[in-house]
Amino acid sequence: MLLLRLPVGENETSLTLEYQLVRSDRRTVSLELLPDGTAVVRAPKRLAQAQIDRFVVEKAEWIEKKRRLLAERERTVPAGPVKAGTEIPFLGRPLMAVLDPRLSRAERRGAALALPAEHVEEAGREWLSREARAFFPDRVRELAEGCGFAFGKIRITGARTRWGSCAASNNLNFSCRLMLCPPDVVDYVILHELCHTVHHNHSAAFWALVGQHCPDYREKRAWLAAHQGLMRLF
């Protein structure tokens, strides 16, 4: 990690801006902000460090603005452990968690999610998996047929680090925690993985295909990055 100290005013000494530098055979300089707020600068191998630092200084205001936005959005994610009164997002609609000692597994009751009084997280995960197994097959087929994609099997996982993936065999994997996301974001993840059945990489051709089927995919990616905390719910 590299550190830059930027002057912020006459009476204040400096602002420390930390960023990660990745050099490669590329021709241009780019900036990416990771979900944890880390700024990653990608630059040509032979570009002078002073030029890279100037680039970061020019982007300093943008970096800090985006970091504040990430922090604000992260606070909208329910903090575990789930307890009575916790608001659980479910396909864009909030469900209020209630605890019922008579239950052995979670069940939806209108605008509420009833959970056993014990083993709450285990019951929540099982409920998410159950809902995902009922939801994904039909929705994936619908989007695939509408966009002209072919795929193999569908598998629902309990992944906490990846929303979805596509195997070399074109089998698709989706985290059950996607059920905690809005429907348009879920559709983006499905289309993202369907595009991998054509391009098994993240090349320019891949992103062009994603953009063809989901023009606002950058907004969806930003939403997922900002709400990565949903992976820790249940």
**Straight-line N-to-C gap:** 33 Å
Walk across the major sheet and give the strand order.
1-2-4-3
What characterizes the major β-sheet? Answer: 4 strands, mixed
Amount of beta strand: 15-25%
Residue windows where pLDDT falls under 50 for at least 5 positions:
8-13
> What is the share of helical residues?
25-40%
Mean pLDDT: 88
Shape: flat
Walkthrough of the structure:
The two termini are about 35 Å apart. The chain is an alpha/beta fold. Strand 7 and strand 8 form a beta hairpin.
Entry keywords:
alpha/beta; flat; 6 helices; 4-stranded mixed β-sheet; 23% strand; 234 residues
Describe, in short, the structure shown.
This protein is an alpha/beta fold. Helices cover 37% and strands 23% of the residues. The strands form 3 sheets. The chain has a 4-stranded mixed β-sheet. Strands 5-6-8-7 form a 4-stranded mixed β-sheet, with helices on one face.
Strands, helices and their partners?
Layout lengths: L1 E5 L8 E10 L5 E4 L5 E6 L4 H10 L1 H15 L12 E4 L2 E7 L7 E3 L2 E4 L4 H28 L6 E4 L6 E3 L5 E4 L7 H13 L8 H10 L3 H10 L8
Parallel strand pairs: 2-4, 6-8, 9-11
Antiparallel strand pairs: 1-2, 3-4, 5-6, 7-8, 10-11
Helix pairs in contact: 3-4
